[in-house]
Amino acid sequence: MDSLFSNSDTDTVRSTRIIYTPSSFARSSLIHLQETGTLQALHPHKSERSGLCSCLFFTVLSGAGKLSYGGKSYDLHMGDCVFIDCRKPYSHETGFSGAGRQGKEALWSLQWCHFYGPNMNAIYQKYLERGGRPVFHPERLLTYRGILEELYQIADSADYVRDMRIQEKLSSLLILLMEDAWDTQEAAAGASAVVDIQQVKEYLDANYTEKITLDDLAARFFINKYYLLTLFKDRYGVPVNTYLNQVRVTYVKRQLRFTGRTVESLADELHIEPAYLSRLFKKVEGVSPSEFRKSWKGDA
User: Fold this and answer.
1) Torsion angle defined by CA atoms of residues 9, 10, 13 and 19, in that order, rounded to the nearest 10 degrees
2) pLDDT at 130
3) What percentage of the chain exceeds 90 in pLDDT?
4) Phi/psi at 58 (nearest 5 deg)?
5) Which of 42, 181, 212, 291 sits CB 3.0–4.6 Å from 130 for a disulfide?
6) CA pair distance 72, 55, nearest whole angstrom
7) What is the distance between the alpha carbons of residues 4 and 139, in angstroms, rounded to a whole number?
8) Contact of 217 with 200, CB cutoff 8 Å
9) The HTH araC/xylS-type domain covers which part of the protein (predicted)?
10) Strand order in the sheet with 109-116
């Protein structure tokens, strides 16, 4: 594919990069690498792209520049990170007015990776739903840089399972991005609300066998139930009732595998009807409780 920042090294930039060609299996089934490297701008320059089936992550190692994306302009400085969906038009530039100081001091150096996968559209959307931004300044910058360095080393190796190792590193990158997507400044401004939601989760984890309603939770934690719903989903990515059902199904799976308990006794313990528990279990697991138990028969 074309380089993200320039088509080749010129007197404008100096770079060390790997343009990677994943296997057909990796392209169709894995989060796969397309390009990774570092560059140093030697003179002011601007790059524009659109319509690329890729996601771009880069960090500014030194200098300054500017990103235009989603109808907004962002000034970038050392330590800033960018994570964008390259299907949308974007441009970045360094060394021009508005991109820091004029001249050589303003010219940036970058470290980046360009990657994609069959589920990246949904993953990037989840990033946005969690509050992720195109530009952010992380506390764990060295962790991001370490992942990028390891990606480069793996892509440059002859490891016969390198596509799987690349997916592992890209997954680590995405986990970091999802963790940092939670707006810590906003969370600090509303710290009591965040603590309350964490307490709600801890309560559900400890009391999932009890009969729990949304009204009960709202009363217990002195919070409006609709606000509780919003905060919980924003923080944990799923509605309260979905999370509670996941915890209960996990408990039922463990009982079905390692005990002889019936669905009726489990439903009674969870304060729900046996027929409802069976429907819930099949909705989550894709099989009935009896089919699940049979598939694990003899499990140690």
Assistant:
1) -20
2) 81
3) 71
4) -145, 160
5) 181
6) 18
7) 26
8) yes
9) 198-295
10) 13-19, 32-41, 109-116, 55-62, 81-85, 135-136
What is the CA 197 to chain-centroid distance, rounded?
Answer: 21
Report the mean per-residue pLDDT for the chain: 88
* Secondary structure in 3-state letters for 118-154: CCHHHHHHHHHHCCCCCEECCCCHHHHHHHHHHHHHH
- Separation between Cα atoms, residue 156 and residue 158, nearest integer Å: 7
Structure-token pair, residue 214: 């949304």
DSSP state of 106: G
Q: How far apart are CA 285 and CA 280, in angstroms?
A: 9
pTM score of the predicted model = 0.69
Neighbours of 245 (CB within 10 A): 19
Q: Count CB atoms within 10 A of the CB of residue 250.
A: 12
Rounded-to-10 torsion of CA 276, 280, 281, 287: 100
Please name the amino acid found at residue 23. S
**Coil, strand, or helix at residue 179?**
helix
| Residue type (1 letter), 148 | L
Helix (H, G, I), strand (E, B) or coil at 62: strand
Report the greatest alpha carbon distance in the chain: 75
pLDDT tens readout for residues 73-113: 999 999 999 999 999 999 999 987 544 444 455 899 999 99
**The tokens of 227 are what?**
């606000």
Instruction: Give the model confidence (pLDDT) of 166-199 as tens digits.
Output: 999 999 999 999 998 865 444 444 444 555 788 9
How does residue 2 score in pLDDT terms, banded at 50, 70 and 90? very low
Q: What sections of the chain are H helices per DSSP?
A: 24-29, 120-129, 141-155, 162-181, 184-189, 191-207, 214-220, 225-236, 240-258, 263-270, 274-285, 289-295
